[in-house]
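User: Structure tokens for this complex, please. No commentary.
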Amino acid sequence: MNPKLILAACLLPLFPFSLIFNAVFAWIRPPLARAALLLGWPLSGLWVLAASGITPPDWIVPWALATALLYALRALTLRDAGQWLAYLSVSLGALLWVQPEPALAWAMSAPLALLALVLGAIVKRYGAAFAGYPDALAARSPRLAGVFALAVLAAIGTPPLSSFFVWLSWALTATPGAAVVLLVVWLLWSWAAIRLLQGLLVGEALPEAARPVDLGRAGVWLAALALVALLAGGLWIAGGRI
Amino acid sequence: MDALIVLLPALPALSAGAIQILASPRGQCAPRMSIGFGLAAFVLALGLLAATFNGSVLAGFGLVADPLATLMATLISGIGLVVRLYARRYMAEEAGYRRFYVLLDLMIATLLLMALADHLFVLLAAWHGVGVLLYFLLGQDTGSRPAHRYALWTFFTYRVGDLPLVLAAVLLYQAYGSASLTALFAAVDARPDLAGPFGLPLVDTVAALVALSAFARSAQFLLHTWLPYTMSGPTPVSALMHAGIVNAGGFLLNRFAPVLVHTSEVLHGIFIVGLVTAVVGSVLMLAQNDIKKSLGYSTMGQMGFMIMEVGVGAFSLAVYHLIAHGFFKGTLFLGAGGVIGEARKNDGVPANDLYTFVVERRPAPRAQSWLVMAGLSLVLPIAVLVAAHGAVEADLFQQQGAIVLLFFGWLAGAQLVFSTHRLQSEQPWRLFMLVLVSFVLVVLGYVLVSHAFDLFLYPDPAFRARIATAAGIDLVWFDLLVVVLTAVIVAGWVRAYRAERDLLAGRVRPAPALWRDFYALVSREFYVADLYAGAARALLALSGRLNLWMRWL
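Assistant:
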């Protein structure tokens, strides 16, 4: 196998090369660094692919779909929101083999970077972000909970945000068989996302539960601006690319 | 002028944004703004509907205001306005009052977008968005885990239903190279015989996928489990869901009528699914002891009838049905609070005949001559239905779909008259005549309105004829079907008559073992939810095992 193709398979992660990305992501803790990694990793993969001039062989798309399916299935039982984000990044990064375009990589990675920052804000206040801990986030930190819910929705391809049109673009360019697998992956990620949201947001807050300072207005406005940018990105993809 | 069409979904969307930014979390500002924008959207929808009556169709920005779209938009914005008004006081003491109005306005904006969509991507985005917003509306109480559990069922079923529509869009886009619905339908009409994936006929495949999507949205059998269990959400959301959202399947099938008209087999499949859903929904409704679940299954049965109407080619009748059902079920849900309040004040149960007959299921001790009444029951409804349909359209009996609907109308009418004669009354003939007059009025209204809908939604007579032809089946099979169904129904009536005669005579017959098994099956709701829960548990176990094997990397 061509070494440049192997490098691309590490950066647009195909199983088992995806283990490298997961290990790096787990090792890096600062939210900003994680956001940069989520943005930079797949873009580097696309750059390697473009610079090497390799035409991906036919068997790579089925491999990419299998990787995406594997991580979507595994995400169903994850409780650590950070690890969940890493798996989502692997799954989406692998799917970039279906249509390896930088615009789509940006549109898909930007919501992941936003989610990394939001998770950082939760960890800063509660010490961790697991399904079940902190529970009842909606009652304890309503603003943070709202921004977290929107960021998760943006990451899994909810309309009219950019990632939705990325999924649509992949489906439109795939063969019918590949499109079916792609849609199953999308379904599993939707399920995993709601399980994660329920684990973190839902529940009655006990009177003795900690209630740290909620996200400030400036933070909410920044998140809203990011979502508006993702919306604009989605419309741009829908209008110009699909 | 065409920009007006964008304004319709934009008004509630703007309202949502303005409420989130300007309104206080608990004050009356949120409902006032929402109602104001909602009223403006309703007036605009009425204006667009009036314009379509005059033959004007606005289009632009991936949207179209054709008769179907404006009719649906008027319904959505009208019901949305009523729900907003109702929720103003009903939700005032709930947590997340402002959030509720933001989500409600976003939901109505998305529904309007769906109704007006003339572009595949707009339709897909709106179709998908409805499921997401419904999840958050049903989970309005963030402290309630059961509410969120059942909201997840709804979300998952809707996502399952989204996927066939995406796949249908992919096939259409790849085959015809356009995402405009108007252009696609013209292309399908010009070239309906293209081959699709795996050698299947493209149009049949697309139609089947669209139908699957509609089935999930309209709670058809095997995709219905979410509907009876989603009663933990706020009452205004239940009203919106049962009056508007669940009807979207009928809308989608009407929107894709230009594709479905090329697919006889898919229409027959739709009829069978609708029929099974109507029967199963009605049976499960009767077996419930929880009034809310009973209402949920009632909606399921009604959705079955609506889908069945599409299957027999009565597309416009399905639209009429969804509007009528929307008003009826919306009134029931919004009236629920008043009924509960009244019951708390006055718990005296009315001991009249109607109550003992309908609620306690106790037959009247004295019945009229059953032979005469049974004759009237069978003959009168069919005479009324035939006369009403014949008066509206002379060549009606050339259409099998109309005959099937007449058949079901006869069943309903016969059941009504059959039930009436068992009521104890001082003046049984007077009561009977009143029921008959009401029945005649309902049938005439129904027939006239449904034909008016047909002319409004599908003005091209050639297209209407093509729909009737596509929905038709071989005459021998058709006759056989009618005979078998009639035999089953009459056998049911005879059995009900015998059971009540035995009850009056004080005779007790042990229920046959098969009957007891059937009752057990019904009481467990055919184990459908259990099967799904088992499959979900197996998938989660597999996921956990994979993570263990791979050491969570």
